[in-house]
């Protein structure tokens, strides 16, 4: 059975963030009114090349409840009116913000936009009142530059596991 490596990363101090500027060509807007169908669309659009599919199958009521909760925030990045990427922040305990999903649409990968969008996500996480820690996980099935991008922005690896694909 094929395996993947899953890496868990965290940032426990906003001062550890090595920010990259958001490109002037990228406009990031928070979806202040939750729309589960939009999150589902973004997940499929961004995740297709990276085998994000588990959320699209079966009962989605728990996912919908999470997206519609006060502990969840969604941001969409636009480039000249087209969706270029997105991210979701999730903080169910009021202290630890998970960058739940983060990614660029395939056509926008390699244009130097990802580092700036990730910095935007980190800034939004730290600006969320009460945040004490920002964390995420990625895996070996993700874009080959994903882990390095997270580490360049200041995340440190705190756990690693091998799991079936």
UniProtKB/TrEMBL annotation:
GO CC term, one of those recorded: ribosome
Gene Ontology molecular function: acyltransferase activity, transferring groups other than amino-acyl groups
Residues that span the membrane, as ranges: none
InterPro entries reported for this sequence: Acyl_CoA_acyltransferase (IPR016181), GNAT_dom (IPR000182)
Positions of the N-acetyltransferase domain: 27-165
Top-level lineage group: Bacteria
Keywords tagged on the record: Ribonucleoprotein, Ribosomal protein
Alphabetized Pfam families for the sequence: Acetyltransf_1
Coiled-coil stretches: none
Keyword presence, Ribosomal protein: yes
Protein name per Swiss-Prot or TrEMBL: Ribosomal protein S18 acetylase RimI
Organism listed in the record: Kushneria avicenniae
């Amino acid at each position: 059975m094929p395996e993947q490596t899953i890496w868990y990363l965290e940032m426990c101090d906003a001062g550890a963030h090595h920010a990259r500027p958001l490109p002037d060509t990228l406009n990031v807007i928070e979806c202040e009114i939750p729309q589960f169908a939009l999150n589902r669309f973004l997940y499929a659009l961004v995740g297709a090349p990276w085998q994000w599919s588990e959320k699209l199958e079966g009962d989605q009521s728990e996912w919908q409840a999470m997206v519609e909760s006060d502990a969840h925030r969604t941001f969409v990045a636009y480039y000249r009116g087209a969706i270029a990427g997105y991210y979701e922040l999730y903080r169910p305990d009021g202290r630890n913000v998970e960058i739940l999903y983060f990614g660029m649409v395939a056509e926008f990968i390699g244009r130097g936009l990802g580092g700036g969008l990730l910095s935007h996500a980190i800034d939004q996480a730290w600006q969320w009142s009460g945040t004490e820690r920002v964390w995420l996980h990625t895996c070996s099935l993700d874009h080959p530059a994903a882990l390095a991008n997270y580490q360049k922005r200041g995340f440190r690896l705190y756990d690693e596991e091998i799991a079936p694909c």
